[in-house]
Amino acid sequence: MQRPPSLRVPTGLPTRVKVVEVGPRDGLQNERQYVPASIKVDLINRLGHSGLTAIESASFVSPKWVPQMADGHEVMQSIDRVPGTTYSALTPNMKGFESAMRAGADEVVIFGAASEAFSNRNINCSIAESIQRFEPVANAAKAAGMRLRASVSCALGCPYQGKVHTDAVRDVVARFADLGCDEIDIADTIGVGTPGRVQEVMDAAASAFGLDRLAGHFHDTYGQALANILASLEVGVSAFHSSVAGLGGCPYAAGATGNVATEDLLYLLHGLGIETGISLDAIVEAGGLISEALGRPNLSRVGSALLAKRANLCGSTD
Amino acid sequence: MQRPPSLRVPTGLPTRVKVVEVGPRDGLQNERQYVPASIKVDLINRLGHSGLTAIESASFVSPKWVPQMADGHEVMQSIDRVPGTTYSALTPNMKGFESAMRAGADEVVIFGAASEAFSNRNINCSIAESIQRFEPVANAAKAAGMRLRASVSCALGCPYQGKVHTDAVRDVVARFADLGCDEIDIADTIGVGTPGRVQEVMDAAASAFGLDRLAGHFHDTYGQALANILASLEVGVSAFHSSVAGLGGCPYAAGATGNVATEDLLYLLHGLGIETGISLDAIVEAGGLISEALGRPNLSRVGSALLAKRANLCGSTD
Hints:
The structure is a homodimer.
Chain A: E1 18-21, H1 23-29, H2 37-48, E2 54-59, H3 72-78, E3 86-90, H4 94-103, E4 107-113, H5 116-123, H6 127-132, H7 135-144, E5 147-153, H8 166-178, E6 183-188, H9 195-208, E7 214-218, H10 225-234, E8 239-242, H11 262-271, H12 280-294, H13 301-315
Parallel strand pairs in A: 1-2, 1-8, 2-3, 3-4, 4-5, 5-6, 6-7, 7-8
């Protein structure tokens, strides 16, 4: 693989980054076709063996709402648990939390929007109420010794109200901090953010929590994800979400491509000399296999380029 | 269109950027199907009326090598010339230069690789020889009062030799500077660069020429183009090449997507509060039309997202 000559990490950037793989949950949940548990298990196992230390693996929501995730228990119970890797599950309520605990999740994920319009339209309550409802889940997670993560959606813009103010993001982050979260991610759900604004929002979030426990969750709908990640690195964010092969997408954004691809993120980070502990080759392989299994295009540019190169090399005579 | 709340240009970034549109030449030259002159003329006219001040419009190379560009004279003579806009043409030799002059090009473009392996394999001579051969073209352009631009290919990596040293880039830039170039672009021909390395290469190039006359030409093969552009902005580069709808691609890179899309670049720049004088809407429109005319996917993420959104809005009842 082509490696840039210089691998000195530019001044001011973190030297190590944590990548949170969200393909098996956030990614697959947005795929239209039903994906059998065996394929999910194989994907998670490949991801676990690539060196990833955090994999969002299941969602314990009502199977009526999200049939794709109905097999969460089976999936969580069937995967190889790589020591040191955190397998997380989305839990909208106590019922979900109990299922996640029974299934053996290491971390539960709660969520809220930074946009009142989004919160009202999607869950029919205010932001404050939506977060308050998670208090029992947060308390139960702490009592059970499980990690607690929160996701702040629409932090860079909202499909209904447009602008989202920095104060609103800081406020949501502060509320999640009060619940005792171990990690909070700032999500650009509809992918409209650009680097200057991203730095402002990350600074605001950091003022209410802690830079070292913040993560960036960027969508590539407008192609800005990697530029936004670079901008986040520059203000000290050292954890990012991504989805192998760019699995998934947001149903609220027209023409949406979804989460930034893990392959593209790793190429950026490794090119900057930043350590991740993850094998890009293993992720490219996993991305190729899941794309093939689902009969969908591989949305990772790095994945597509490297797989095409490999295929070329194999077919070449020189 | 969604606009970020803050449009204060982040400290240290240029407040205005020149965008050089290369779709009609670099883009179309790499499309497989023959594109009639009338479609080229319509595309260039739309681009000219969008506010773009620099459009690479034709290539005066042997029609045996590049049949797609055989109609350069007709195209250059048929387009509306928007006052203040520079219409440039690629000229590999004196014959090409004379054709470009007859056709009314405002600027001629010469080129050379920063990789000896690439130069030897593609034009069968050393880098130094390849640049020396352009001396008559450079002199003739100066004598005729035409602008002279040079393009340094493989500046971030080479498909044959892999690594390309910073010194090699600086050396090629210095040679082009000696020929009297008005502008020099640093091209990541195979799209392998990442931001840290890009900043090193831009710094080296600036030491041999002038930061204010340097441009960045990035390919999105590995999805890194916008991150590399952000990194270039941070070291003061204020001109970038891009291709409407992501037209074109490099035949040397497997699985290659080509030049960064103009729409995606403008979204980044405008989001940062950087002025370009260009209407994103007009470019999105032009990108949609040329993609349709060629029956190819629109490779701009911004173009695809905004066009899908428009289509949705038109079909929507609320």
